[in-house]
Write a structure and sequence with these properties.
alpha+beta; Glutaredoxin; 6 helices; four-stranded mixed β-sheet
């Protein structure tokens, strides 16, 4: 009986351990805000900041600092990926076309924006399941607490850290991470 229990445990736990060890972001394909396919595999070797955004939130002005950060550090080694989400008090009610128009006209956003997704609940986007579940990302569990929560991804596609929505995009923590080799 003990051997059967041990074998069953190994058959369940081992695949999860292997998944967590190889967990990286590069297997995901999502829809960009213009409807085209966006393949995270194209970002191999770059540091990535993933942020859930909203147009009608007290933190919406963070778009300005996100764009500054992208202009200063974006390119070969870093990219910001925005995911509009309407999970918090209906603060992103617009269509994808309305969202990108707002982002570009009000804040000059040039970093890649994806289609609106859900970042929590039963309809959570698969990429956010990976970001928030240690069993998938191999690093830590988290919960998206509000708009503009930031996920930092290392060059190898692994989760580095989760930053609260109130953490400024140009904070010392972010700049220090960007300047690490």
């Amino acid at each position: 009986m003990k051997k059967i229990l041990l074998l069953t445990t190994l058959l369940i736990v081992l695949p999860l351990m292997l998944l967590a060890q190889d967990a990286n972001l590069y297997g995901f394909k999502v829809k960009a805000i213009d409807g085209s396919e966006f393949d995270f595999n194209s970002l191999k070797g770059k540091k990535i900041m993933i942020v859930n955004t909203a147009s009608k939130c007290g933190l919406t002005p963070q778009y300005e600092d996100l764009e500054k950060l992208y202009k200063q550090y974006g390119g070969e080694g870093f990219v910001i990926i925005g995911f509009p989400a309407n999970n918090f008090m209906g603060q992103e009610p617009g269509s994808n076309a309305e969202i990108i128009e707002f982002c570009q006209s009000k804040y000059g956003v040039s970093f890649p924006m994806m289609e609106k997704v859900s970042v929590k609940g039963d309809d959570m986007a698969p990429i956010y399941k990976w970001l928030t579940q240690k069993s998938l990302n191999g690093v830590k569990d988290s919960e998206v607490s509000w708009n503009f929560q930031k996920y930092l991804i290392n060059e190898d596609g692994t989760l580095y850290d989760v930053l609260s929505p109130r953490e400024k995009p140009m904070s010392e923590k972010v700049i220090s991470w960007l300047n690490q080799d």
